[in-house]
Every structure is written in C-alpha cells, then in structure tokens.
Amino acid sequence: QLVESGGGLVQPGGSLRLSCAASGFTFSQYSMRWYRQVPQKARELVAHITMRGRLTTYADSVKGRFTISRDDGKNTLFLQMNELKPNDTGVYYCNVPTLDYWGQGTQVIVSS
Predict the structure, then answer these.
(1) 58 - beta bridge partners?
(2) What percent of the chain has pLDDT over 90?
(3) pLDDT above 90 (res 39)
(4) Strands across the sheet with 16-22, in order?
(5) Strands (E), 26-65
(6) pLDDT band at 40; cut points 50, 70, 90
(7) Do residues 79 and 95 touch, judged by C-beta distance below 8 A?
(8) Strand pairing category for 106-110 and 8-10
(9) Burial status of residue 4 (CB atoms within 10 A of its CB: 0-12, 13-18, 19 or more)
C-alpha cells in the first residue's frame, strides 16, 4: 500500500513537501517514482530514485527545483518541491515501477 500526503494550495514561488508512506512490501529493496497528472493529459514521470538513494533522475521541467529522497527506516518516500509554478499543478502519485503499485494521489495546486 502507498499513501501520499502533503499536497495543498500554494502560491507561485512557494514550497511543498510530499510524503508517500509504504507498507506491505520491502520498501528498501525497490526503486521508487513520483508521477503527476493533470486532466486530459498523460501521467508524467517527475522523479525517480533507486535503492538506497544511489541515483536520482528528474524530468527536465523540475530539475533544480524538486528533490526526491527516501527514508528506508521509515518506509517513506519524499518529494521536496521548491519554486513552484502554476504548471506544477496536478495530482501527484508515488509508484513502485517494478510492482506497478500506485497510491491514491495527493492534489497540488499552485495559484495566486
């Protein structure tokens, strides 16, 4: 099970930190991802982190602003989002790519 939290309404330029609490599998043994989706558009891969956080990759649109991280002791995935823009608005999902597990999503709205 994956449960996201931390979304909300924020002004442009602001920050949010998303969390994804994992259970039911050995979290530390899997790479993890954050995706986002806006209505009528395909789900977009935002960030990826490998086991133990050895490697992280980001969509070009969020590089330098977002940071993906993980706490294997707490079975939790994070996404720190800074310098938020209106185009970052969407529902953010965490994902275990090799298991095809998805959370229910958390809504982020960037608007003044």
Answers:
(1) 47
(2) 96
(3) no
(4) 2-5, 16-22, 76-81, 66-71
(5) 32-37, 44-49, 56-58
(6) confident
(7) no
(8) parallel
(9) buried
DSSP 30: S
User: At 108, which amino acid appears?
Assistant: V
Please list the residues that pair with 35 across neighbouring strands. Answer: 45, 93
pLDDT of amino acid 59: 97
Q: What would the two tokens of residue 67 be?
A: 């940071």
In the 8-state DSSP scheme, what is residue 59? -
**Mean pLDDT estimate for the chain:** 96
Please state, as a whole number, how many other Cβ atoms lie within 10 Å of the Cβ of residue 108.
21
pLDDT higher than 90, residue 44: yes
DSSP 27: G
Backbone angles phi, psi at 17, to 5 degrees: -125, 115
Please name the amino acid found at residue 57. Answer: T
107, 88 Cβ separation under 8 angstroms: no
Distance CA 68, CA 33 (A): 8
C-alpha distances in angstroms, 27 versus 13, 60, 70, 77? 32, 26, 10, 9
